[in-house]
Design a protein that fits this description.
This protein has 369 residues and is an alpha+beta fold. It has helices at 3-12, 23-43, 50-53, 69-79, 106-119, 134-163, 166-190, 196-223, 235-245, 247-271, 278-307, 311-332; strands spanning 47-48, 55-60, 84-88, 94-98, 127-132, 193-194. A four-stranded antiparallel β-sheet has the order 3-4-2-5. A two-stranded parallel sheet has the order 1-6. Helix 4 packs antiparallel against helix 5 and helix 7 (166-190) runs antiparallel to helix 8 (196-223).
């Protein structure tokens, strides 16, 4: 089946995945991921970069080699094991950071510069040193937290007005928190360095996650516009149809977003040695994957679970189920013929194409001889 045929089958309802109906599975996976992430944050904590903790930084230019081991060995003599963080910058330069927050003395700084120059076959003038205080990183953290709070507040107000449902909006916001917590948890579990670039990446993926979720929710609103006036489908079934109808679009959007980030991460950082892009590319790569999954498997099921708590929606769902039982009873009793299976799991609208068999046929106007 071609991608076009596959997408058409999903849109028409001929092929459908029970994403919303299996929401307990996705909720269990999400809850476990959040618990593990919070546990990792509490017990292991974030591996904060020197922008947050403070420390010294050396830049080696025109190095004859980009092997990181000599720099690690030199720094360990002055600041202890596991205190050096070395990254390649371009083809012939390295960035050497000394974590821990303590400032090296002038004599230690001079000795490290000389040792790095000898180890990498360059002059002392090509090795620069700076000290970064923790104040700048803390200021970035405060500003990022303030921006995140304002972002959530404005998003909640805006989406509530647009979708006219605070329950659906709450589902989208909870999905955003899931993406944020799990991404931070992955950083804690694998000990990845948390830098200001990581903070920028986290705020970026929140916007992407929201964008993908809004596309799905907009289709949900379209499918359920006249939901309460019929008794054929429930809100959960209407939402599941919307998720399937936008599935191909979500996949295409995710792939096209991941391709440039993957190129930066694996080619730019891995092959070309652009280490300065590593922090931003890493968090974007993980965050885009999580955002794509949460917009499909978490946001819409959460919206359904919350919306089903509305008394009007509870009443409508009960009416749909009662109508189905009554139709089934009448068919089994022979009081009415069995209906043909309808592959479109949704609400029919005027002008909807239901297949060639449902179209009117031209009468045979040839005169009988």
């Amino acid at each position: 089946m071609s991608m076009y045929s596959f997408g058409n089958a999903l849109y028409s309802g001929k092929k459908s995945y029970r994403i919303v109906q299996n929401r307990k599975i996705w909720f269990t996976i999400a809850i476990v991921a959040v618990i593990v992430s919070l546990a990792a944050l509490g017990f292991k904590g974030l591996n904060l970069g020197i922008d947050f903790t403070g420390g010294s930084q050396f830049t080696v230019s025109n190095a004859s080699t980009v092997n990181q081991r000599p720099a690690v060995n030199i720094i360990s003599q002055y600041a202890g094991e596991d205190s050096a963080r070395v990254a390649q910058v371009g083809k012939s330069a390295l960035r050497v950071q000394v974590a821990g927050g303590s400032k090296l003395s002038n004599d230690e700084t001079t000795e490290i510069r000389s040792a790095l120059a000898d180890a990498y076959g360059t002059s002392v003038e090509e090795v620069t040193s700076t000290f970064i205080g923790p104040v700048w990183g803390q200021d970035i953290s405060v500003k990022a937290l303030q921006g995140f709070i304002w972002f959530i507040v404005l998003v909640f107000i805006g989406l509530s007005l647009y979708f006219r449902s605070w329950r659906s909006t709450l589902g989208a916001v909870l999905a955003l928190f899931h993406d944020l917590i799990v991404t931070v948890g992955i950083y804690c579990l694998f000990g990845l360095e948390f830098t200001p670039s990581t903070v920028i990446g986290l705020l970026t993926i929140l916007g992407y996650s929201l964008y993908d979720t809004v596309v799905v929710f907009d289709k949900v609103r379209e499918n359920s516009e006249h939901l309460l006036t019929q008794k054929d489908v429930t809100f959960a079934e209407s939402t599941n149809l919307a998720v399937n109808q936008t599935l191909i679009r979500s996949i295409n959007t995710s792939v096209t977003s991941l391709l440039p980030v993957a190129c930066i991460l694996f080619i730019g950082v891995g092959l070309l040695g652009a280490g300065s892009l590593r922090d931003l590319a890493t968090v974007l790569f993980m965050g885009l994957i999580l955002s794509a999954l949460s917009s499909i498997f978490l946001a819409s099921p959460l919206a359904v679970t919350l919306t089903n708590q509305d008394p009007a929606m509870k009443k409508h769902t009960a009416e749909v189920e009662a109508a189905r039982l009554e139709r089934k009873r009448r068919v089994e009793a022979g009081e009415e013929p069995a209906e043909e299976e309808n592959v479109l799991v949704g609400i029919r609208t005027p002008g909807e194409h239901l297949g060639a068999s449902s179209q009117p046929h031209r009468k045979n106007r040839r005169k009988k001889k």
